[in-house]
Amino acid sequence: MKTINTFKQLIRVKKSRGHCSLCGCLSNQSPKFEYVGKRKYSSEKKSGDIEIQTKMKAWQIYQYGGNEQLTLTSTARIPKITSPSDILVKVLAASVNNIDVRMRGGYGKMALNALRRGPNLMANNSEFPLVLGRDFSGIVVETGQNVKKFKPGDEVWGALSAARQGTHAEFTVTSESEISKKPSTISHTEAASLPYVATTTWSALCTIGQLSESNTHNKRILIHGGSGGIEVTAICSTDAVDLLYSLGADVVLDYTKQDLKEELGKIKGFDVIYDTLGKRKAGYSYKYLRPWSSSKFISIVHPLLSNLDESGVPFGLLKTGVDAASYGLRTGHHYSWAIFIPNGKALSKIASMVDNGQIKPVVDKLND
Ligand SMILES: NC(=O)c1ccc[n+]([C@@H]2O[C@H](COP(=O)([O-])OP(=O)(O)OC[C@H]3O[C@@H](n4cnc5c(N)ncnc54)[C@H](OP(=O)(O)O)[C@@H]3O)[C@@H](O)[C@H]2O)c1
User: Fold this and answer.
1) Pocket of ligand 1 (CB under 6 A)
2) pTM of the predicted model as reported, rounded to 2 decimal places
3) Which residues lie in coiled coils (predicted)?
């Protein structure tokens, strides 16, 4: 029998016959994990006297609302692998993003429930109890039969699709395409602060903005509101000015003290403006894009999910389409929205950038 050091009190590797001895699901991977820990979780007995952990601690909500809806339970079922590309991960650290707070209040429920139902549109399964949390850093416990790149014991990080049950739990199920190996130079806590914001920024700047290592020479990028979840910034409030210089911004403007229109007027000619604030706060800046070029205004404050929540599917889609077209026409510039898409390939590159010191995690506050 071999022990995995990082969670040695909890799990021991054991040859198993037929099914996963951790959660009881069907999987043809071997060796398997057996619960041998001292933690007092509910457990069932199977195959003789082996104790199998079937329950875990998790923060759950049973209806949408404020913080009062969050319940810490120690009897949530450990999620099961249901697809051959699924991976069961022991979560060692997770973070709270803006989207978790908004999802707690019901944001995106219309579209996300449709995604959860999948092709079975008529199904009426409730999303509750719902576990929030997109980011995680942890250790692979079990893999589906088609998983090639990861094996039990690998240290991995990722950000899950918003339609999945979340990571504010001891275990989570992800898929091979959503994760990569964790950067080796930072802790699990630091790692859990990055995947969601980093892949959203990747989606905006690399996928939609078409920026790459080879084409950024002589280009100017303006980033609104980056001192929050979203990476590097050039406009922020006083508290974040030093931090943003230390992270490598060339110019940092303080929106609480400086006249932004005057300052941006002096710089002029941005190739890409990355907006994390929304039209009301950042819409004025499209005029600082480089004229007569392929310059782009890219916003991650996407109205689609709220429009679907407010107006239902056909009208929500229509409203979003009209919004996009009218904004582009009014500004005369290429206007796009970018959304977070789980992206294991991007995370693998981001992990190398972290290990090379090009991206630094900033952890503000820790909760046990
Ligand atoms: N499309 C997607 O997939 C996606 C993914 C991630 C996030 N988002 C959206 O992106 C938005 C931002 O997310 P976040 O996680 O960064 O939120 P956040 O943590 O609330 O951060 C927002 C930041 O913007 C700063 N700020 C506020 N007003 C500003 C202004 N006028 N100029 C410059 N900076 C200003 C705030 O700094 P101070 O507190 O110091 O004022 C704060 O640090 C949210 O609407 C979120 O829903 C979308």
Assistant:
1) 97-99, 200, 224-225, 227-230, 235-237, 239-240, 255, 276-277, 281, 300-302, 339-340
2) 0.83
3) none
